[in-house]
Amino acid sequence: MDFQKIQLPREIHTGEGVIEETGAICKDLRISGKVLVVTGHHTLKVAGEKAIKSLQDEGFEVENITIEKASKDAVIEVQDGIGSASIVLGVGGGKVIDVAKLASTRSGIHFISVPTAASHDGIASPRASIKNEGGSVSLKAKPPLGIIADTSIISKAPFRLLAAGCGDIISNYTAILDWQLSHRLLNEYYSDSASALSLMTAKMTMKSADAIKEGLAESAGLVVKALISSGIAISIAGTSRPASGSEHKFSHALDIVAPKPALHGEQCGLGTIMMMYLHGGDWKFIRDTLKTIKAPTTAHEMGIKPEYIIEALTKAHTIRKERYTILGDRGLTEESAEALAVTTGVI
Ligand SMILES: NC(=O)C1=CN([C@@H]2O[C@H](COP(=O)(O)OP(=O)(O)OC[C@H]3O[C@@H](n4cnc5c(N)ncnc54)[C@H](OP(=O)(O)O)[C@@H]3O)[C@@H](O)[C@H]2O)C=CC1
Ligand SMILES: O=C(CO)COP(=O)(O)O
Ligand SMILES: [Zn+2]
Hints:
Its main location: cytoplasm. This is Glycerol-1-phosphate dehydrogenase [NAD(P)+]. This protein has 2 domains: 11-156, Rossmann fold; 168-343, Dehydroquinate synthase-like - alpha domain (Dehydroquinate synthase-like, alpha domain). The protein is 52% helix and 13% strand. It is built from 14 helices and 8 strands. It has helices at 22-28, 41-57, 72-82, 94-107, 151-156, 159-186, 192-207, 217-237, 246-257, 264-278, 283-293, 299-302, 306-315, 334-343; strands at 11-15, 34-39, 61-66, 87-92, 110-115, 127-132, 135-140, 146-150. Helix 4 (94-107) links the parallel strand 4 (87-92) and strand 5 (110-115). The radius of gyration is 19 Å and the shape is globular. NADPH dihydro-nicotinamide-adenine-dinucleotide phosphate binds at residues 40-43, 46, 70, 92-96, 98, 116-117, 119-122, 125, 127-129, 136, 153, 157-158, 161, 164, 168, 263-265.
């Protein structure tokens, strides 16, 4: 018998000031005892302290660990810090959420995702990207029990993070094309429902591109809900396929070759322009939509030298080889990589 299990978040709370309800939400979820709050250095100040106070006001004992990187060591540090805690809260960007998610999964306890930026679709996903010497690995984890997304906090985060989140969402277009290609060529498992949710999320968000503005809680709400929806598509698929294809391989390769990579979502957005060109699709629509959102569409705007873009393009097919995409098994030659980046205006 071929059983399939889909695990999804139980409660999703969004809105301005909802972080003040953290303690009450945890009580409602029947959580008791000690809570471990994982934050980054910035996110402790902008959100972590508010979440901690709300938990303490409701009588929870709270401990805090601040991490710097989404590394194996950080995961071990959080696992060691869990002790008798009954739940882990990850209050921060993608790296904090990934570390808190994986450490809680490995310790067999629940996790609540408290995003401080709408910059990535790991907010609700059952995956954790952990960096090591050779790049990053995407590991299976439990999806969060709950999500508390305070749109007031998210709207005050640097706008670059929100624009990056839109890049992670627009990636769904090429990710789905890659998945369909692999399904047709290699009979890879494919989920119509996960694919439909992922595409609908990308289409609805891009239709609202004009409304995505700096400092607005409504814009933050729109993007964070789309990112949650993308994460749910990943849960339904049981793989990151609906939200990660050749454009993500390019971003992962750039993380390895560029001395100072840009944000995950920014790199994925740029990758989507180029991979859509390779798919023969409307790459100009992708570029123009990213421009409307004020997300970077060139290497220069991302602060990355052209040679790293070309190198990442030639290496992208070597990342997660089992995931077949438009890059094929042989990838791009240096000449075709350069031509691709020049034609699409990326370099
Ligand atoms: N698991 C999954 O399915 C997915 C995982 N990812 C992963 O997520 C990561 C990318 O996430 P991203 O959020 O872009 O990067 P980071 O988590 O590295 O955050 C970027 C920076 O933004 C800061 N920050 C976050 N929120 C605020 C705020 N409200 N105000 C001020 N500063 C803030 C962080 O501060 P601080 O220093 O405090 O942390 C950090 O310095 C990558 O590691 C990527 O691989 C991406 C997509 C999916
Ligand atoms: O970033 C992701 C989806 O947006 C996760 O993708 P990976 O599985 O490639 O790490
Ligand atoms: Zn991504």
